[in-house]
Each structure stands twice: as structure tokens, then as C-alpha cells.
Design brief:
Blueprint: H1 2-7, H2 22-28, H3 32-40, H4 56-62, H5 66-74
Helix pairs in contact: 2-3, 2-4, 4-5
Amino acid sequence: VVELIESNPSLASTPLDGNVTLLHWAAINNRIQIAEYLLNKNAQIDAIGGELHSTPLQWAARNGKLAMVVFLLSRGADVSIIDGEGQINR
């Protein structure tokens, strides 16, 4: 990931297919070090993406990634955003 972002810094915040960001993938896979790196490279913590129009925090919460949820909350993720199914992270 570092090599990819260092060669093209805009990838840290650029949506990929389905409007999903690298931070979404880090969140769902519980890759805290990668998430931290991406956030330090200006990734949008509350980016909306995927079929459910969800944030990385919502991806992590929906998939039981507690350590990632705690990490994203510590970095200021917004718990009040409602996803495409009308779910909120409260």
C-alpha cells in the first residue's frame, strides 16, 4: 500500500469501483496500520461508498471489526451518518 500511495498520493482519497476507497477495504479487513497510513495521507474518514452507501466505520461495525471501530472513532469518524439502508452507527 505504501508503495502504491507514495507513487500516486491521490489514491489515498480517490474512490475506486463502486465509489469504495482504500480506507473502506482497510476497515473491513481490520487493517489498522493501513487505515492510519491512509488517514495520514488525507483519506476521507467518512467517505461514502459501496452498494449500501456506507462509511468505513459502518463497514467495520457491520462486520464486527471492533478494533477498527474503536480506531476510526478515535480519529473522528462521524457516528451520525445514515447509510443506504437507513442504518446509523449509534
